[in-house]
């Protein structure tokens, strides 16, 4: 579709919108007046800039009329701006006034390109920009800006790691991404198009935690699954970016498959801290609910459903209390009391809880001030909740770049919200 055809289509849609004609006419009049004022102001400023530059030249150059130039401003497009010129050296001239005005539009285009990266079609983007600029940008122009945005995002995501943290918190969040298939179809317009399919992928993320308690998203990438191979690849990529593996002392995670083996190979000095939240929750699957109480602590009669809820509530409460102990020795005493109390009532759940229980006590070897942050993956899980809410609105991402872009934007927002170190200064 040509630019003219695209503009005609946009105008048809615009004419069918809910805006009253009076408001449309008023908006057009305001736009026209603003553009006229902006045009006059720019043309006068260009003359002043030319005179100032000419006075600094060692060789005097005479004026030689004007030439017309199309300029995009934040108020719309000026199609025939009168730009003064000299008899020579015009092609090499850089106009500060024009650069300043067009820089605002570049920022606007960059923002719009974020929308494109997130899945907005080029046709929709052309329409959105038309109402802002008053003209239809070609797909080539939009793609050019979009590629620059994607390049900057990739550069930000893959910058060198300047400081290796004491601890890493790792986890993965599942997403749906569309991929091209080796199959083709004929659409309703008779065009041959490649078929696409939404597939599940896991976005592996790493949060850095320093000895002073500061934390931020350090690295993330898309993988087909959580496995020893994918975790090894992730650590290798971080080391390539500058992570010093010997400096990392702790890796906080859930019980994900293959992570421990990957950690042993690439992080030789790190110990694994199993997330206590995941550990406690793991008991729920093994509950048998035998010998349920008929009344609560106040003597109130309980239904079966209420009794089950009360059982799980008390079990969780007692389990979490183990990790509130101020020292490892006291935590082990609390663990023994917990097992003695519950093993006869819920043997399967207690057996599952004790499996590799020592990995949930590793945090006691570190500074007490860090205990709340390093004994769970909650810092990363809270961030995932925000990301999931945005990802659910999108559904299946149109490509991997779109998914990674959203993750970066959410991370930057999260860091600003919680006054953390910005990603751009740490990646």
Give a quick precis of the structure.
The chain is an alpha/beta fold and 427 residues long.
What does this structure look like?
This protein has 427 residues and is an alpha/beta fold. The model is unreliable at 422-427 (pLDDT under 50). A hairpin with a 5-residue loop joins β4 (192-209) and β5. Helix content is 49%, strand content 18%. It folds into two domains: 3-156, no CATH class; 160-425, no CATH class. It has a five-stranded mixed sheet. Strands 1-2 form a two-stranded antiparallel sheet.
Unreliable residue stretches: 422-427
Overall pLDDT score:
81
Termini separation comes to 41 Å
CA radius of gyration is 31 Å
Number of separate structural domains: 2
Structural class: alpha/beta
- Strand tally is 7
Largest sheet: 5 strands, mixed
Main sheet: which strands, in order across? 5-4-3-6-7
The fraction of residues in strands falls at 15-25%
Instruction: Please report the number of helical segments.
Output: 14
Give helix and strand order, one letter per element, not per position. HHEEHHHEEEHEHEHHHHHHH
**Overall 3D geometry?**
elongated
Which percent range fits the helix content? 40-55%
